[in-house]
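Predict the 3D structure for this chain.
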Amino acid sequence: MHDLPTTSIKSRARDVAFIGLFIALIAVSAWITVPIGPVPVTMQMFAITLAICVLRPTVAISTIYGYELLGAFGVPVFSGMRGGIGVLLGPTGGFLIGYLIAVPLACVLLHLARKAGLVAAGSAKDPLMQVERMGAKVVRALRNTGMYVLAGVVFTVVSYAFGVLWFMYMSNVGLEAALASCVIPFVIPDLVKIAFAAGAANALAPVAQVRAIGARA
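Done. Predicted structure below.
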């Protein structure tokens, strides 16, 4: 009983560490830009999708809100090493605003999938997993990856929707022009990023989730 407060403190410290780590990862991924038009190609979709898949929902949501808050206060964490409220209110700010809705939705989807047993949490050190048949491991990995990809697609589609609507309003262009500038050039690259994030999450999710759960037990 006397260990509970210490365990809780360690768990919260671990959560804060994960939040800081993934905010830094998202910021660095935003700095990697390829300017192909009004909306640059970045690695943000990979980093945020990875955070959604790897972190517990509350930690992932806290990460994206913390990232946006830092950027709004002028810390250069957005694409092109920019920061400030002007970036959020600029023509491409709809994507950043959309993240605040898209990340929680994707996290809720994965949370429900885990409760339904569609995403299996486990540790590579679990003795039961070590004796598990290879075929079952492959099935579990494919099922997990499929749900991670679905969560990434949900996140991306919602982000696109906010980004397109905001771009149309700020740039005074029609839907076709907005899609041509904000969506069409990015669909295939973003799908590739989601696939890579889902694959990485299969290795990283047990470390980030199971240990945190164990710390709260």
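The longest helix spans residues 134-171.
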